[in-house]
Amino acid sequence: MRKSLHLSAFVALLLAVGTAAAGPREGEWVSYRDAYRAMVVFEKYGKPKNLIQNHYQVAAKDQSTAYDGVQLALRGKSVRINLALDATGRVTFFPLLKAAYDENAELVLSRPLGALSFRPRVSIVARADGVYEAGELRAACEQALAYQRHVDASARGKKCVGVHFAFAPKGAGVSVKLRAADSATPAGLPVLDGAAFGDGPGEGFKTVSYRFGALPDTAQVLTQDAPLAISALFE
């Protein structure tokens, strides 16, 4: 009986190791090697990327999930690091560590969040002054789309149509205005409940979408508060 239990435990261990090596899956953990490879692609990407950034994101299927206090722990034989998540589930700083890669370390959540997906997330760099030139937003969107085409062939038929600003879920008085070149008075853009990123479902954040349309590059988008995230809109 004892030998049978030992054999069962050994088989379970082999299955666990095999699953860890298989790569990302829905659950509470992911292989660091897979995350590392995905992040290195952006690091080595040689085309313009000065207006965009890349984070590793833990995305909960339940859009009401709060990431306050949640950490993604990097655990290996010689490496143990806690990685903080921002309000959108992105790792604020993702270390590229050869030792963790060689040890096939795991990225494990500090507490269960339900059904999850793990993925790199490209977004547009926010400006400290809250003033965004329409031409610069177009350029940032084009950089994001060029990178998306680099990693995903299905994006090659898409075009940039705008950008998506996300603010805190309980943000009061969110204000984003559009100032056209021929007008001294900015016009407010609609604030809606929606997902943090334009390609995601849910209504957990205050959001504003700005579509390029025919406005000249000299128009400006003005944000009163710093957005949690700015994402490109493709269609």
UniProtKB/TrEMBL annotation:
For this UniProt entry, which residues form the secretion signal? 1-22
Which superkingdom does the taxonomy of this entry point to?
Bacteria
- What's in the keyword line of the UniProt record? Signal
Name the record gives this protein: DUF2987 domain-containing protein
